[in-house]
Amino acid sequence: MPFANFKIPQGMMDAAQKADLIHRTTDLLVSYFGEGARLHTMILVDEVVDGGYGRADAVFDLEALRRMQARLEPRSR
User: Fold this and answer.
1) Domain named 4-oxalocrotonate tautomerase-like: which ranges (predicted)?
2) For residue 28, what are the CA distances in angstroms to 2, 43, 58, 63, 69?
3) Per-domain residue ranges for the chain?
4) What are phi and psi of 56, to 5 degrees?
5) What is the DSSP string of 47-68?
6) Distance CA 48, CA 7 (A)
7) Residues whose CB falls within 8 Å of the CB of residue 69, separated by 6 or more in sequence, listed in order
8) Do the beta carbons of residue 39 and residue 1 sit within 8 Å?
9) Which of 43, 52, 48 is nearest to 11 (CA)?
10) Distance CA 42, CA 61 (A)
11) What is the pTM of this model?
12) Per-residue pLDDT reduced to its tens digit, 10-49
């Protein structure tokens, strides 16, 4: 049974975005394992409480992640 587990910051994705993530991940795994795997594919999307994650010894909260995301998005011309 293919299995994927995503950990995302709480409140970062709405229900439609999570559904899209699940559908796309399922399609990706089916592309590797074949259509027969679709019925047995498990995708979990866990929301981590704000401030409950970090990288490189820095604790992140949702606001810090949004600022980082804004810096990475292409600027409009």
Assistant:
1) 2-60
2) 10, 11, 32, 30, 25
3) 3-72
4) 50, 45
5) EEPTT-EEETTEEE-HHHHHHH
6) 6
7) none
8) no
9) 48
10) 28
11) 0.74
12) 888 999 999 999 999 999 999 999 999 999 999 999 998 8
Q: What is the Cα–Cα distance from 30 to 2, expressed in whole angstroms? A: 9
Tokens 């409950």 belong to residue: 52
Report the CATH number of the 3-72 domain: 3.30.429.10
Distance, in Å, from the CA atom of 9 to the CA atom of 65, rounded to the nearest integer, reads 9
The band of 76, judged by pLDDT with boundaries at 50, 70 and 90, is low
Say how many residues make up the chain.
77
**Which tokens in the block code for residue 26?**
């399922």
Please give the DSSP secondary-structure letter assigned to residue 10: T
